Amino acid sequence: MKRLAGLFWGLLFLAVPILGVVTFAVAPAYDIWLPKDVSEHGAAVDGLFYFILWLTGVVFVVTEVALFWFIWKYDANNKKAEVKYRHGSHVLEVVWTIVPAGVLLFLAIYQMNTWADVKMRRPNMAPTVEVIGRQFEWRLRYPGRDGVLGTPDDLHLVNDLHLPIDEDILIQLKSMDVLHSFFLPNVRIKQDAVPGMKIPVWFKAREEGVFDIVCAELCGWGHYKMKGRVTFESRESFEQWLEGKYQEQEATQASNTET
Amino acid sequence: MESVVVNNVIAWCCAFSPVQKARVANVLGLMCVVSVSLLATGCGKTPAATFRLNLVESSKQQLTASQEQQVATILAALFGTPDEPRVPPEINLDVAKLKLAAGPVRSDIVGRKNGLYREHCAHCHGVTGDGMGPTAAFLNPYPRDYRPGIFKFKSTERADKPTHSDLVMVLRNGLAGSSMPSFALLSDAKIDALAEYVKYLSVRGQVELSLMRAYFELDDEDEGVLPQSREFLFEEIIDPVTEMWAAADDAIIDVPDMPADLDMVASIAKGKELFYGNKANCVKCHGVSGLGDGQANDYDDWNKVVLQAQKTVDGGVKQAEKASTWDMSAEERDEHRTELAWLDRFETVLDGNALRPRMIRPRNLRQGVYRGGMRPLDLYYRIHAGINGAPMPAAKGTVPPEDIWHIVNYIKSLPYDFNGTLGVDRPMVARDRM
Amino acid sequence: MRLAVSTVETKVTSVQDAPEKQETHVHVQPSSARKLSTFLSTYVFSKDHKVIGLQFLFSTLLWFLIGGLLALAVRWQVAWPWSDVPVVGKLFAQQGGQMAPEFYTMLFTMHATVMIFLVIIPILAGAFGNFLIPLMIGADDMAFPTLNMLSYWFMWPAFIAFGASFFVEGGAASSGWTSYPTLATNVNSSPGAGWGQTLWLIGLTFVGVSSMLGSVNYMTTIILMRAPGMTMFRLPMTIWAMFITAVLQAFALPVLTAAGFMQLADRSLGTGFFTPEGNIVNNAIATAGGGQPLLWQHLFWFYSHPAVYIMILPAMGMVSDILTCFARKPLFGYRPMVYSVAGIAGLGFIVWGHHMFMSGMNPALGVTFMVSTMMIALPSAVKTFNWLGTIWGGRIQFTTSMLFALSFVSMFIIGGLSGIFMAATPVDIFIHDTYFIVAHFHYVLFAGTAMGVWAAIYFWFPKMFGRTMNEFWGKVHFFLTFIFLNGTFFTMHILGAVGFPRRLADAYHYETFHHLQPLNAFMTYCAIGMVASQIIFAVNFFWSMFYGPVAGRNPWNSNTLEWTAPSPPGHGNFDFQPIVHRGPYEYSVPGVETDHLMQTDPPNAAAAAAAAAAH
Predict the structure, then answer these.
(1) According to CATH, what is the number of the domain B264-298+360-433?
(2) Is A23's CB within 8 Å of C491's CB?
(3) In the prediction, which pLDDT does C90 show?
(4) What is the count of residue pairs from A and C with beta carbons less than 8 Å apart?
(5) Cβ neighbours around C66 below 10 Å, total
(6) ipTM of the complex
(7) pTM of the predicted protein model
């Protein structure tokens, strides 16, 4: 029995890389994977994710299998061989310091451009919509017919965000009370809404569809309830929708509105 | 002394052989695994949720325990439980919708989510619809208590009930500036079911109040028990409630058309006149700058109930303390003791079963946040009928209907108004900076 | 449990040492008052580092249980939202056992708070640091015994503050363990933001003071009180790790304490450090303004990032010692290991912004912090390779302690590699505040540090209590814990890939996350199994303390100084002043009969020749 100790425990540790890889391989089949991406920059973000996944995956498998191998091979009950009395290897230390350092540095520099695109290179345009996080809803403000935010013809809505596709979108993100975070999983966009700050968020959507807006920063008991919906549609459809909502907002008779 | 005992115990245990010790260790270990698995199978499921009696009202009416029991029994027979709702056919509510909204959160065979009320509403509005869910005490304003049947934001005249569409609209849009969220992202069927359930809770609450108040009307020969007759139950208690709800659709406010060629600037000027004038007298509460900083020492109806109850208790306690018992007869002393017991119980109820009264503040009109909706139509409704349950009075009768439109236009201009001039280039006022 | 008795004894090289002789004294019976004060000063307010270490150990293990139960309640809600919760549901009888959403926010806040501040940090530094440092460096006690005693007793106000916060109006703190303003600073923002949050800040301050007192003690002791011959580069890795952890605590904690006072002031004195102007929360207007919520985040993370290294470095050190002992091999790359620990600590001060990539701070800082964060993966990688090098070519003995130490390496690889995803700022855009992050830190803190802690408990238990724990049940404990923890936490990585957010009481009403309930139910079952498995450990621990097989001085045939002292050591620790002749990892030295050469063994010609030949 004791002779099998190394094999037994080794196999337990071997289960880690095996099941680990299996989990990641099988997950997409159950739709437990990156959600559909409809944005322009999303491909770059996802590409980086996959690059890191493969890189870490290889390191993961190699190191865990090495661990298994050593556990099995160097079991005290089995081997009568001499213990390798070594205090280290200067060459190995240099190699496994320089190589990971190089890889990590490369990773860091490789990603700077994508980060800059998403967070630093703001397009020069007026905001398409102002999104204000509030306990526990997303208040939206469209500039209205005059194209300027903060005038009487602004369109005020809650939670139901519509945006045109194939155009640069600039969102002005604010918070009324506490920290919130504007997260569009299908657009690979996330930005904390900070009270007292006005933060620009920009992206371009390539495809029509209806997706979730999720709050991604704890904002109180209703954090889970801060569900919004973003609808990407063609420019004409978007304008039509805006007009319809505007008519509702200006309603002076019950028959004008849908209940 | 203890060390002797401990030493002896240790010695006794040390006398075991290693094999015996190992066995004991193994057995103990096994016992633990078994007992934990038993524990893990959920010892003690929580009993099903039940409706809570309106204790403030029953204390106010000085109902005895058996009378409270009678009320609870009648209500259970009429309306069922939070998990299994039912309504007598005379009350015009759709039981299928109620069943969708009622009960614990669970999925039925078709995969459809049930227990909508418990999932979305109960933690604020309470399982009984009493506005006292676990979260309620921390919200400002408090969540609505449906039981008195008073609703603030609707399209009907002040004293009338809201229509079904009104309830759906509140669910859909939420109440801007309060903690009531927008449920627009729920399906129409779900919103419908929830609106129906709100009506159910409201009707139930009103029936409960009527029943409790009916004890006051009893003669001595009734011996403190309500009549068991159908006639009493329906004609005296239930019909008055359902009739009001049924009449809601006929009580919608008649809104005159806003003229298409209206000169907005002139209208706003006229509205301002009315705002500051004596007829509407808006500035009394809303303040001379419209910031809501006028008279502000009033309470809404729900808080008033608790406040008055508190005053009753405080006053009663003071009086009872003043009374000197030593020259009272035996009868009087008994009465005095009952009085004290009732006051004590009432105080306990107010401590544990009522939310601390909060003053209601008039709306700051400069923020552009309107709880009942920001459409000109909504503002018309609010001004015409006032707000039921709140100190906001009805302008109906004092202000002609067309003039109300002028006030509406003035109010809508206030968030963008700087020294009377509308415009884009105005400095940001701190309170407006949202 | 046997306490302070010691005799001189001849060295025995077999695994099972013969039991020690008991020395008897004749006492004059003291008066009861003196008895009480002796009892208090011996067992309650003891200044003996070993007693203090055990006090820390028992307290933290109890809080570990509490934190674990809080986690189970969290997992229940995540798996079956709005269902009748066992035990906790009684508090919500009105709703049929369904917990309220603010209660959920309180659960995960206090779970994290308890685990971080009342379990991991005190058990590593307070329990093991205290117990092991003087023993491993050959000192008779800490440099400042009274300060040491105070550092334990300063934890008690924290225990009381955090414990009491559950019972105040509004409940315990519910703004996350990160306590971000304005949620935490404005008392109207959530129920737990009232008294609960104030007590939380008070508790935090006391933990901070306790840690700072301890860190001063450890640094001084390690620098000044080493035995003759114990140069810095002959210290075991445990001590190096404890030393550098103490440095981290000394430099990082004052920032957190200051930030905590600022937040207390914002809440109670109406200051506006973190409150912006015109802030209206829950329809209540803030009393002051002109502050910045981001300021708290910077101050908080300036401490809390080094804190995560405080929470792993001692475990890394202890695992190094345990691996070498049971592989019967010297540590591979001792100096690189030391430099790596120092590197992790040093770099740890310049990476705090990686918690704030999405926070709204200047995005250019995202670039600088990304570079430093990527680089901090390097020393951890070096350490992992060196651990693998340590077991390569050894003769591995599969004791419970060794199994936990091996699993530390295995699980740390996962935790460390998952960190690289979040270091990449564009990827962090997607995975920030999702379960990917939760997976990462549970792997490093639980699958890493907690496994290391168990390894250390099984390893040093004989030294603490004079008896060994039951090996069979220890292995059962390990096996079950290993399986269940991976079942609970590994799939969190793929949940994070979906974007499943943290801290949501019910995520399934989003279209994106609608289908993830069955997976979460599976994870909760594993979590229940994991917590249940700890009962085996608890029974083993307490049983073995009284009835376990008696251990001699060196049941594991290890090299370091503590194994020359009796088990358990008496006051003053050693029979005579230890003299150190070599490093701590001289196992299986060629030419030497025994497979280990203790640090205090007299100089050995064969060993010296072998050492010369090996380099």
Answers:
(1) 1.10.760.10
(2) yes
(3) 87
(4) 332
(5) 18
(6) 0.95
(7) 0.91
